[in-house]
Amino acid sequence: MTVTLADVAARAQVSPATVSRVLNGNYPVAASTRERVLKAVDELDYVLNGPASALAAATSDLVGILVNDIADPFFGIMASAIQAEIGGPGGRAGGERLAVVCNTGGSPERELTYLTLLQRQRAAAVVLTGGAIEDAAHQAAMDAKVRKLADAGTRVVLCGRPPAPDTGAIALTFDNRGGGQELTEHLIGLGHRRLGYIAGPEERTTTRHRLEGHRAALAAHGIEEDPRWTVHGRYDRRSGYEATLELLRRDPSLTAVVAANDSVALGACAALRDSGLRIPEDVSVAGFDDLPFSIDAVPSLTTVRLPLAEAGARAGRIAMGREEAPPGGIASVRGELMVRGSSGVPRS
Amino acid sequence: MTVTLADVAARAQVSPATVSRVLNGNYPVAASTRERVLKAVDELDYVLNGPASALAAATSDLVGILVNDIADPFFGIMASAIQAEIGGPGGRAGGERLAVVCNTGGSPERELTYLTLLQRQRAAAVVLTGGAIEDAAHQAAMDAKVRKLADAGTRVVLCGRPPAPDTGAIALTFDNRGGGQELTEHLIGLGHRRLGYIAGPEERTTTRHRLEGHRAALAAHGIEEDPRWTVHGRYDRRSGYEATLELLRRDPSLTAVVAANDSVALGACAALRDSGLRIPEDVSVAGFDDLPFSIDAVPSLTTVRLPLAEAGARAGRIAMGREEAPPGGIASVRGELMVRGSSGVPRS
DNA sequence: CCGTATATAGAAAGCGCTTGCTGTAACGCT
DNA sequence: AGCGTTACAGCAAGCGCTTTCTATATACGG
């Protein structure tokens, strides 16, 4: 049998109500009584029953963080930052909160399932990270779920994900379009006119926005795009490797390859090297995100830095009600172009 | 007001008990009744109240995964694999389980706090990943906590962490010592006699075991170790960079650098390159773990592959009671030496 | 010195669910 | 036909906590 509140109360010679109040610290209790209770708690090694507490109080100290791929540092960094902000005391009585990271693996079903699970646990807040899946039915289902969560008092924050209008969710969106455009403009400025683009999976907002930025830059400079120059793949290195070989096969005259993210760019570099091409002398490469390893690549990667940790921290604070939501519930987070060794003037 | 079991019962014209049984599927219910209930659930958009359910049933569907650093793919990969095994149906009624990843940041206090939080939530299982902190007091506190959890019916699995005897926890330990030894022996076999070692943080089992393996290899070949050849640091790239410069300063005649893990090794490579040294012609470099990016480094990294995903998956299955625990509750997981471009014969 | 405000503690009513036990038909057997 | 079984369904007692309301004790103002 585990120790209950009543046991502690008996030992401290007070009522269960008093013990509860001491533990929650939300009601005046005489110092001497408090001490007696705390002593009993300690002696009995009492641990509050979370479910019972959540049931009675109709709130829980669970905070959910949904990520597409926990093995990807892009999400790991955000999750880490969010969790760091959540760990501390917040809302109800200096109580610790349990930040739970849920890995959807990019699957629509799991995303929805996790949201239901969190709703079931009456989570205090939920942070959804990364791009959304662009499927009308799924979007609608997600929005409905989010709205329901928000209605039930769960604070919902989107971090690095487009806003979901009329759902009550607060959005910290990454300016993927702007970053993509800036990146490609840098390459164009260097003199590149034949640029390959390795996009992420289709039906993802992040993929689409980055690609749109790329195309906007091309259009702005009057460069007509060849459909052969775009290949879709996954957000991992392997995919970048294969896509680059494909790109090279389709048009060996490309002088630059823009990747959907840094991992993909690394794969692209490997493929280029394996094809006997030098970076950036023969082909320039650019990534996106500026993950920690990007500066370590040889040559170091030109990319767009996304303030993942900062955005995550802010999302965490907003989720905890420790920071005000941005006006209109939407804020755009800009990326910063990082020009490094992997981009240079095109070969003549 | 949210929808409750009673509402569903009323709508389906049955008793709450019946609804509960339909939902849990652990008691015979006539097909026609079940359908009626399910229909009502659907129509009312009913979501079970997790805390209430956990309270009444004295169990919850939460599974905790503790990691030292969620932004590090080493943990991300394990967590991902564990979670994949847990997501599915298990134990009680095809019910989904909520796998929660808790980021301790390597802090002893947070580790303990999270364990308490999970205990409070009456977690169904807990998986502790990665090396443990070697502090007697902390160890004792952890062991006591783990024992308490196990006593309360929570299954505890250690993945990549040394066994905790008499705690009821099941351990899947990585053979860090053996891997470290094999790695250094490879280097010695190549002809190296002056090897630098960049160790991880002190007071960590992983750090100690890998270092012990390294020293065992040296000893086995009659190489006397110079204390200047070992530097401690963190498990990240930055630390590897700095430690390598320090190593070079202390003894420029080193012909090989063994790193605590792959990230550190990457930092070492960068430092060597920045010092005008070629890899492996001037200095060989070796890592540990074989994370995905290691093969992409230039030159690709010689390292010890740890089957992180496999071990994680197994830990997950054991935690769910879907796979039998190894005999004695302890299993050692071996690493595999991956010889690649970063190691070669020493310069003469 | 009394009436009222103030501080502190307890009693008790749930929170929404699970489950042991108790019906009550319908069924099968002799 | 009579009776033990079997298959469902409902009743009701909690699970361990929070919180409203109430009770008591002390303090204060006049």
Description:
The structure is a homodimer of 348-residue chains. Chain A is an alpha/beta fold and 348 residues long. Helix content of chain A is 44%, strand content 15%. The first copy, chain A, has twelve helices and twelve strands. Chain A has a six-stranded parallel β-sheet, with helices on both faces. A four-stranded parallel β-sheet of chain A has the order 7-6-8-9, with helices on both faces. In chain A, helix 1 crosses helix 2. The N and C termini of chain A lie far apart (79 Å). About 2% of the residues of chain A have low confidence. At the A-B interface, helix 4, helix 5, strand 2, helix 6 and helix 11 of A face helix 4, helix 5, strand 2, helix 6 and helix 11 of B. Chain A binds a DNA duplex (30 and 30 nucleotides) through helix 2 and helix 4.
Largest interface: A-B, 59 and 59 residues
Spatial strand sequence of the major β-sheet of chain A: 2-1-3-4-5-11
State the assembly state of the protein chains. homodimer
**Distance between the first and last residues' Cα of chain A:** 79 Å
Coarse structural class of chain A: alpha/beta
- Radius of gyration of chain A equals 25 Å
Poorly predicted residue ranges of chain A = 89-94
Protein name (chains A, B): LacI family transcriptional regulator
Domain HTH lacI-type (chains A, B): 3-57
Pfam family, one (chains A, B): Peripla_BP_3
Keywords (chains A, B): DNA-binding, Transcription, Transcription regulation
Keywords:
homodimer, 348 residues, alpha/beta, six-stranded parallel β-sheet, four-stranded parallel β-sheet, 12 helices, DNA-binding, LacI/GalR-like_sensor (chains A, B), transcription regulation (chains A, B), transcription (chains A, B), Peripla_BP_I (chains A, B), HTH_LacI (chains A, B)
